[in-house]
């Protein structure tokens, strides 16, 4: 990791960039992933690199959905593993019954296995790979993202996706699953299609999600269901867009 002084005004953002570069060098992320991260950085800059109240509301609702879920799965790609590996583990641990599944846009068996092994190595106990000998397929998508592990997303009722493309998000929703998306772009198809869009930087959002999961595991179901019912994703996206437009 480059030697960035903590006094640098954009220390946190530069550290996050270094994580992506390290992930790329370790073979977790792709070149395209570095570009996707740059787009995220630009949006995060416009958001003031902070978790806004609209994101907090989405994270709280996501926490309620994950607690109420029968079987939730965290869909992990090269960027999310690189940018937020330890924070993904925090969320899995805070939930207790949530699995992870490696699902890649630019799929290769080697990179999928590498990300799987990386997550296992840092503490994930239930990690699957979407592409396996007995995968099931999501209808409507042509590329490798259509595969679902039989023990993972194929069985899931709630899927948490991060830095995801719109086609897969849409196919997951159409398949009857509830989708929670983390995406810094409130205008993306993913953010609009997901039932809950967390417009926040992934490594900042996940520790807060882990905190809420720990606090809410024992809350009455009815209270959590009320929160889910009163959540308005369109309003959350409008608020995020207002902040972004207001800062340019
Ligand atoms: O590892 P792979 O092969 O599965 O590929 C992963 C990438 C991210 C390259 C692939 O899914 C992709 O091309 O994604 P997109 O379509 O560029 O979408 C990524 C979205 O995530 C964009 O809307 C970005 O603004 C957003 N984003 C980027 N970095 C972050 C982010 N959102 C939250 N936190 C970030 N750090």
Give start-end ranges of low-pLDDT stretches.
none
Order of helices and strands: HHHEHEHEEEEHEHEHHH
Approximate shape: globular
Largest β-sheet summary: 6 strands, parallel
Helix % is 40-55%
> In which order are the strands of the major sheet placed?
3-2-1-6-7-8
Over all CA atoms, what is the radius of gyration? 17 Å
Structural class: alpha/beta
Assembly type of the shown chains? single chain
Q: Name the average pLDDT.
A: 95
Give the count of helical stretches: 10
State the main characteristics.
two-stranded antiparallel ribbon, 6-stranded parallel sheet, 248 residues, binds ligand PTJ, globular, alpha/beta
What does this structure look like?
Helices cover 53% and strands 12% of the residues. It has 248 residues and is of the alpha/beta class. It has a 6-stranded parallel beta sheet with strand order 3-2-1-6-7-8, sandwiched between helices. Strand 1 (72-76), helix 4 (78-95) and strand 2 form a beta-alpha-beta unit. The longest helix has 18 residues, at 78-95. It is globular and about 50 Å long. The model has no long low-confidence stretch (mean pLDDT 95). The structure holds ligand PTJ.
């Amino acid at each position: 990791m480059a030697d960035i002084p903590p006094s640098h005004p954009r220390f946190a953002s530069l550290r996050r960039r270094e994580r992506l570069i390290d992930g790329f060098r370790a073979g977790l992320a792709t070149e395209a992933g570095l570009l996707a991260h740059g787009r995220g950085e630009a949006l995060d800059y416009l958001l003031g690199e902070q978790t806004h109240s609209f994101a907090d509301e989405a994270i709280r609702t996501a926490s309620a959905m994950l607690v109420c879920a029968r079987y939730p799965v965290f869909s992990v790609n090269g960027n999310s593993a690189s940018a937020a590996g330890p924070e993904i583990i925090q969320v899995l641990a805070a939930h207790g019954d949530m699995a992870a599944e490696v699902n890649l846009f630019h799929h290769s068996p080697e990179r999928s296995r590498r990300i799987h092994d990386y997550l296992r190595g840092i503490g994930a106990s239930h990690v699957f790979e979407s592409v396996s000998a007995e995968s099931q397929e999501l209808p409507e998508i042509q590329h490798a993202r259509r595969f679902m592990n039989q023990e993972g997303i194929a069985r899931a009722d709630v899927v948490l996706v991060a830095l995801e493309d719109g086609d897969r998000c849409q196919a997951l929703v159409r398949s009857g699953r509830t989708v929670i998306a983390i995406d810094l772009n409130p205008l993306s198809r993913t953010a609009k299609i997901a039932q809950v869009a967390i417009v926040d930087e992934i490594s900042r959002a996940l520790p807060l999600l882990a905190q809420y999961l720990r606090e809410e595991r024992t809350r009455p179901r009815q209270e959590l269901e009320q929160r889910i019912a009163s959540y308005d994703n369109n309003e959350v996206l409008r608020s995020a867009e207002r902040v972004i437009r207001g800062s340019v």
